[in-house]
Amino acid sequence: MAKVSSKKPRYTAPIDPMPARVDPCLATLVDKPPRGSDWAYEVKWDGYRLAVHIEPGRVRILTRGGYDWTEGFPTIVDDARRLAVKTAILDGEAIVLNDQGRSDFGMLQRALGRFPSAVEAGAIVFYAFDLLYVDGRDLRRLPLRERRRRLEPLVAGREGAIRLSEEVQADGDEFFRVACEHGLEGIIAKHVEKPYRSGRGEWWQKITCKRRDSFVIVGFEPSTVPGHLGRLLLAARKGDDLVYVGGCGTGWSHDLSRELRNVLASIVTKTPAVSLRRKNAVFTEPVLVAEVEYRAWTDDGKLRHASFKGIRPREDEASVFELA
Length: 324
Known about the structure:
Helix content is 15%, strand content 35%. By secondary structure, the protein is of the alpha+beta class.
């Protein structure tokens, strides 16, 4: 008579289907860092938020708004294939570091071919700060500390196009002070016990040294210097409409001023996207978005001390500032 084994059959956890896309978790802007041992901090990178999807036979790179930008990041795609995983979704930021070791959005745009450039595409680095899916397991329900525990062995210590965004256990106020002193954009605070939740919430918080948002370019004012840009005219979203919020006339070099003027001249329209009368205004199709750094809002809803930081196509609509 055959002997019956007393061992229980081995349980095999079900394999989770891999999401085609995950809406990103977005940080809420706050005035000062949260306190407590449940919070960890990271540098706030100045680049493009991306999700790297490693799938059987291919790698996809998706923007925050869900657009496929795989072709724009060949070095990240190549490096993703070398990671010791069969399938994965990495959440992070694509950046270019300048000579001071700080992320530079303008250099990133040049590396992507937005303007004539000496910055090569190979200079782009993807800093991964979260792991949402790996080898058949959806990790979004796990707390951040557990997701980070699984992320770090995959990318820590690497010097290629995919690297780890270091997490800092420190006093938030002190870390923020040091970040601003070193010319960084700010810091991100994340609650280590929370799962990954798409959309904006209090479990991720951003504290910026200066305010920075994205606005639709709806026109420009020419410079007194022929062929150059004097001022960008900007709008924010309000429901399905665009509302004029002022402009900016600083933040570009002499050469970039000319390049921007040429780009805008190619999309001039006679139909303004906003209700606005300005004597020297030249209106453009609302297809480009400006990254703008500013100090505050005026009482009449205009940007105060705005400075241009970069430009991007409007197709990634999720990044445009929305008025309440």
